[in-house]
């Protein structure tokens, strides 16, 4: 089994050459940051990821978290790793300096978070959820609540959870039934059950801060009647010390396909008289606050896709180099060779590599847009970046995660029979990847968001602008010499044509036949993911070509052009097929009478 | 008490280097560079001395190309207080480096200089010893334990027969072995602080040191490929082969 080795070369390339790190660190608010600092942070994070988190990934999966008597114990090594992770300041990376964070750009935290996710996805979920809880409190919490909880959450001494889902309220949160009763002293008592609560209980920290969606008495039905509460595992006294145990217990954990080390809790609030909670923000605005954080959370899960694809690729390359089987095609009586010599293994590895690099490039570009959307001095630039990020976040989430499942499956295939055996570690990546296309909004939810809120609602303005931007690359591609660029240009142009055709169709039909539009929504999300990935790979190839022309002999650049060409020939070629499915496929999807299922 | 730690920028230990086709050296273009691991242990030891209240200041010094700044920043992220870069594009050999460090030591007056015992690129294992000789200071090489008290350094050394303990009067030179300590991971706040710590750049000329190479590399070649082994029938066969073919006994 291979250990994780952060792809620093590609990360630096994407950050600097495609996502514009130089421009990002010059944005107001990032005065403390420069590219050298970014390099130093990535370097140290890569050591921690490779040497501390990666070695407990497989063992954590095998052992899993354990539940006993309403408490969860994480697998061996997790508590120590978490303590070190927090002590070394990694939990505070992107948090506000106001509460002890470092306030670093999204672009940098995105690369660093990719490393945690690749090294040990199940581990990384705990700090990820804590970040979500911190952002919720930052967004809507009163100063008193912020002072009480944020410093210790930012420092990682306490972790956070997000309690949204209930047995009958999954994708449809309007159905939340958990109740909150005012106590007259400003606090509330919370009653109800929440499921799928990541790190809802664990033994890594002395306290856990739960954020819980619940209904107040007489709250309106539906989404406008849900409020957000903070419910600590142990009460926090005014001097900051811990008080009595709150009535919030983990009553079981789920047995899952993957992420075994991450405890997925069933949380019972108020079984023994009521869990004490405090209202976050205003009454009945809980879901609204959740939606403010939704972009960040969905983006983070999209990065899990990139990260798992990378890890699966590294494992497959390691095995392919090591595994000797058969002789090289065309070499009669030749020696036994590593399977890396076999064309189909090459195809699988290039498929994994090119899709991972494309997804990383797109995600980092979106991260840089999120930085500009928040910090750029010019309001028009902020708005344009926000629109781009809003459009692309469901794609980063939906496409990268679906891609990671396919890539991890290809990784298993490279291993042959050994990939089906847990000991090689390839299977874990496939199992771990499977959830990413489900939680934080399934791919269908992302696709609905994409074609509805992000496209139809604005008449396709942003997607049209993006397509126009993509087309600008054509002249640059045409100016390059060599067969690789001929292929990249041809396939990319065809991909953009296909994307435009499908986008126009979706925007046009959305009002007339909303079901037909939605029947094509997931294929459209994949289409945009592929073409946007091809866009970034074409940009990458152009930068590489320029470096080579300038005399740079780094083999990374030649490899980038080959990888971009592979992506063009093997992924962009799918674009027209997807468009055909979107435009013509709704009939077949919807025609069958329900009783025939 | 000041502690001086020389650090070297070397090819990362994970990189498999290739010999250049003309046999003049190894190809280090486009490969990852890092701090020499033995030097990292030296920095860690110095920082621990500071944390224990024994050292008042930890100064790191590196001789080499401008990229060594990155190595000095890494050392400052571990906890060194300031850095000195002796910038030179020349091929710096151990004697030249020892002289450069001597010039810095003369100015800074450290009580202890902690070197890594050797650098993983050329494996010379000479600079610390040469520096001690140039200064006329006592030296304890290959340290696995260092205790500093009452103006003395008590150093446990790893030697062939086991462990040897030496006591030296300060100022003194220590070179580190692998088991001296396990270097920490730099914390995020310290990485950010390292950026603001003072880093001074000087040239060999400023220090009055002639760094011209004294050694000439004739040829660099890959080690011979390992031959396939053979199965021996019995112990007698083994002994006979060791005697007559391998000629080792």
The named CATH superfamily of chain B: HUPs
Structure class of chain B? alpha/beta
Radius of gyration of chain A: 24 Å
Strand content of chain A: 5-15%
Report the total helices of chain B: 6
Shape estimate of chain B: globular
- Largest sheet of chain B at a glance? 9 strands, mixed
Number of strands of chain A: 14
In terms of per-residue confidence, which ranges of chain B show pLDDT below 50 for 5 or more consecutive residues? none
Summarize the structure.
Chain A: Pfam families: Acyl-CoA_dh_1, Acyl-CoA_dh_C, Acyl-CoA_dh_M, Acyl-CoA_dh_N. Chain A is of the alpha+beta class and 597 residues long.
Please specify the SSE layout and strand pairing.
The complex is a heterodimer of chains A (597) and B (249).
Chain A: H1 8-18, H2 21-24, H3 35-53, H4 57-63, E1 66-68, E2 71-73, H5 78-87, H6 106-119, H7 121-140, H8 143-154, E3 158-163, E4 179-182, E5 188-198, E6 207-214, E7 227-232, E8 234-236, E9 242-245, E10 248-253, E11 264-269, E12 275-280, H9 286-322, E13 324-327, E14 336-338, H10 343-375, H11 379-415, H12 426-434, H13 443-451, H14 461-471, H15 473-478, H16 483-512, H17 514-519, H18 521-549, H19 555-570, H20 575-584, H21 586-590
Parallel strand pairs in A: 3-6
Antiparallel strand pairs in A: 1-2, 4-5, 5-11, 5-12, 6-7, 7-12, 8-9, 10-11, 13-14
Helix pairs in contact in A: 1-10, 3-6, 6-7, 6-9, 6-10, 7-8, 7-9, 9-10, 9-11, 9-12, 10-11, 10-18, 10-19, 11-12, 11-13, 11-18, 13-18, 14-16, 16-18, 16-19, 16-20, 18-19, 18-20
Chain B: E1 2-6, E2 9-11, E3 33-35, H1 37-51, E4 57-64, H2 68-78, E5 82-87, H3 94-108, E6 112-116, H4 127-135, E7 139-149, E8 152-159, E9 162-169, E10 172-176, H5 188-194, E11 199-202, H6 235-244
Parallel strand pairs in B: 1-4, 1-6, 4-5, 5-11, 6-10, 7-10
Antiparallel strand pairs in B: 2-3, 7-8, 8-9
């Amino acid at each position: 089994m291979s250990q994780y080795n952060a792809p620093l070369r590609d990360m630096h390339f994407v950050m600097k050459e495609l996502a514009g790190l130089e421009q990002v660190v010059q944005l107001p608010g990032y005065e403390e940051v420069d590219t050298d600092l970014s390099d130093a942070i990535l370097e140290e994070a890569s050591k921690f990821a490779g040497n501390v988190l990666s070695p407990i990934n497989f063992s954590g999966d095998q052992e899993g978290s354990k539940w006993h008597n309403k408490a969860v114990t994480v697998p061996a090594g997790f508590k120590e790793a978490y303590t070190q992770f927090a002590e070394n300041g990694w939990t505070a990376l992107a948090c506000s300096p106001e509460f002890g964070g470092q306030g670093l750009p999204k672009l940098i935290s995105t690369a660093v978070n990719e490393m945690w996710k690749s090294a040990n996805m199940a581990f990384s979920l705990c700090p990820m959820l804590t970040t979500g809880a911190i952002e919720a409190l930052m967004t809507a919490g009163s100063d008193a609540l912020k002072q009480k909880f944020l410093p210790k959450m930012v420092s990682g001494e306490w972790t956070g959870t997000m309690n949204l889902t209930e047995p009958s309220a999954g994708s449809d949160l309007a159905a939340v039934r958990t109740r909150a009763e005012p106590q007259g002293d400003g606090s509330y008592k919370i009653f109800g059950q929440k499921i799928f609560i990541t790190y809802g209980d664990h033994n890594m920290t002395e306290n856990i801060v739960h954020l819980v969606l619940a209904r107040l008495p007489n709250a309106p039905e539906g989404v406008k009647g849900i409020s957000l509460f903070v419910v600590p595992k142990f009460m926090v006294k005014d001097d900051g010390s811990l008080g009595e145990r709150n009535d919030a217990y983990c009553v079981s954990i789920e047995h899952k396909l993957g992420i075994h080390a991450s405890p997925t809790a069933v949380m019972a609030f108020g079984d023994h008289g009521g869990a004490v909670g405090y209202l976050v923000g205003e009454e009945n605005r809980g879901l609204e606050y959740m939606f403010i954080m939704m972009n960040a959370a969905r983006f983070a899960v999209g990065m899990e896709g990139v990260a798992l694809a990378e890890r699966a690729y590294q494992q497959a390359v390691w095995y392919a180099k090591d595994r000797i089987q058969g002789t090289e095609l065309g070499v009669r009586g030749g020696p036994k060779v590593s399977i890396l010599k076999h064309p189909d293994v090459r195809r699988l590895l290039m498929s994994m590599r090119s899709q991972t690099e494309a997804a990383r490039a797109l995600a980092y570009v979106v991260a840089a847009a999120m930085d500009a959307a928040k910090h750029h001095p010019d309001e028009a630039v902020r708005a344009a970046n926000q629109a781009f990020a809003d459009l692309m976040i469901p794609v980063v989430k939906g496409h990268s995660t679906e891609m990671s499942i396919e890539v991890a499956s290809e990784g298993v295939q490279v291993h042959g029979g050994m990939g089906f055996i847990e000991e090689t570690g390839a299977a874990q990546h496939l199992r771990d990847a499977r959830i990413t296309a489900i939680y934080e909004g399934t791919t269908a939810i992302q696709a609905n968001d994409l074609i509805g809120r992000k496209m139809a609602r604005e008449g396709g303005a942003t997607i049209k602008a993006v397509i126009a931007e993509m087309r600008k690359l054509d002249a640059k591609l045409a100016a390059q010499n060599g067969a690789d660029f001929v292929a990249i240009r041809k396939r990319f142009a065809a991909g953009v044509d296909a994307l435009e055709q499908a986008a126009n169709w979706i925007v046009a039909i959305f009002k007339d036949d909303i079901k037909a539009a939605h029947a094509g929504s997931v294929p459209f999300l994949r289409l945009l993911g592929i073409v946007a990935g091809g866009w970034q790979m074409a940009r990458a190839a152009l930068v590489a070509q320029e470096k080579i022309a300038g005399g740079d002999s780094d083999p990374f650049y030649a490899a980038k052009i080959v990888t971009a060409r592979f992506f063009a020939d093997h992924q962009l070629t799918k674009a027209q097929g997807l468009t055909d499915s979107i435009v013509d496929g709704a009939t077949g999807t919807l025609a069958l009478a329900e009783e025939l299922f | 008490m000041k502690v001086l730690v020389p650090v070297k920028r070397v090819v990362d230990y994970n990189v498999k280097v290739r010999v250049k086709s003309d046999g003049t050296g190894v190809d280090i273009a486009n490969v990852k560079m890092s701090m020499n691991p033995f030097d990292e242990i030296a920095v860690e030891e110095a920082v621990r001395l500071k944390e224990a209240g024994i050292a008042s200041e930890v100064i790191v010094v590196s001789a080499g190309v401008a990229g060594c700044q990155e190595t000095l920043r890494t050392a400052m992220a571990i906890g060194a207080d300031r850095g000195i870069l002796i910038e030179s594009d020349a091929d710096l050999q151990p004697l030249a480096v020892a002289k450069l460090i001597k010039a810095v030591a003369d100015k800074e007056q450290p009580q202890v200089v902690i070197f890594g015992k050797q650098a993983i690129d050329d494996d010379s294992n000479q600079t610390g010893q040469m520096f001690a000789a140039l200064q006329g200071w006592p030296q304890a090489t290959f340290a696995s334990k260092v205790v500093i008290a009452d103006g003395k350094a008590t150093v446990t050394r790893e030697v062939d027969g086991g462990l040897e303990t030496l006591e030296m009067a300060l100022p003194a030179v220590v070179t580190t072995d692998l088991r001296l300590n396990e270097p920490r991971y730099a914390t995020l706040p310290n990485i950010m602080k390292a950026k603001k710590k003072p880093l001074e750049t000087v040239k060999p000329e400023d220090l009055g040191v002639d760094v011209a190479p004294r050694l000439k590399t004739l040829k660099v070649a890959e080690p011979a490929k390992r031959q396939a082994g053979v199965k021996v029938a019995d112990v007698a066969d083994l002994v006979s082969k060791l005697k007559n073919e391998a000629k080792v006994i």
